[in-house]
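Tutorial, part two.
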Amino acid sequence: MESSPAPAEDFLYDVIIAGCGPTGATLAAELRLHDVRVLVLEQETEPVSFVRLVGLHLRSLELMAMRGLLASILEQGRKRPAGGFFAGIPKPVPEGLDSAHAYLVGIPQPVIVQLLEDHAIELGAQVRRGCAVADFAQDDQGVTVVLGDGEQLRSRYLVGCDGARSAVRKVLGVGFPGEPARTETLMGELAVGVPHEEIAARVAEVQRTQQRFWLRPAREGTYSVVVPAAGVSDRAEPPTLADFQQQLRAIAGTDFGVHSPRWLSRFGDATRLAERYRVGRVLLAGDAAHIHPPTGGQGLNLGVQDAFNLGWKLAAEVRGWAPESLLDTYQAERHPVAAEVLDNTRAQMELQSSEPGAQAVRRLLTELMDLNEVNRYLIEKIAAIGIRYDFGEGPELLGRRLRDIDVKQVG
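Running the prediction step on this input gives:
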């Protein structure tokens, strides 16, 4: 579409964000801390109904603590040891993790999404549900955003936080190279019809060669069930109870009497990274910029950390005090981080293969992880506290995050 430039005083919003998931809500809150006028457009009219658990890793917990949100997260989540993430290889928490929050927090996805959205709204962000970006055009002064019903909105910047199928990325014409899904996994929460002891014994036997498989107690008599799918299908098509029963029998020799599902979903191992995170006044963050398998539980964390990195830089640009190249450092810093996450999830997926070669490599890595330095390196990679931004030559600490340090006044 074409649009004519509007004078600065015509803007109702400084930034429009497409998508009110964890990334979009976090970005909105970060912008509001700098008094940036923010509108968040969310396509869904209601929050997600299924209660999938997600994990917040060390770096995300540090950031939540900085914003005063950690206490609320801990009230509604559950602490878990910061070990055994990498490819599900069961190792203890490594010694020497340099964080005041050296643990994982498991929390229902709807809970953390609502908490982050409420935080953004409390800070003054506007959220409109049932609205999706259909088109947009940018000029030297701003972006004209067209909604699905034809309504036009004007802002200085637009940020696509609208997920893997991002409309913003597609309209922007940014390439999304990578690999399509080769495998698919079914995940759900179901009731079972056999005793826990029988389930535990069979799961332990199957997991000797099949890592993408588990049945774990969830809540109120239900189990979290993960099992490889028969093939790769359209992710828009939800699996059925019959799909779970069929695959459980194929993999484990029994369907464990599963019934009465609370929710059912599927995920693939597609791995893609946007070629660019910024084109003029339009930017991408979260799943709109990168997708990868959920192995290691890094997706939500990666997106939230994108938002923290982008928020103050975009606010500085809006408020007029940013150096000329500041906004470009968002891509310069976060694009390589996402590339590393994609690589470590690729590696983890290979290590979870049932092929003899992959199993041999897994056994070797399991031995190597008995070395604390190896174990800690891999956990720090997943927990995002081992990141170093490239600021050029300098001391070892240049470009690394510094953990919170207690400061005492002397005298």
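Residues 20 and 42 are 5 Å apart (CA to CA). In part three we will examine how such features are distributed along the chain.
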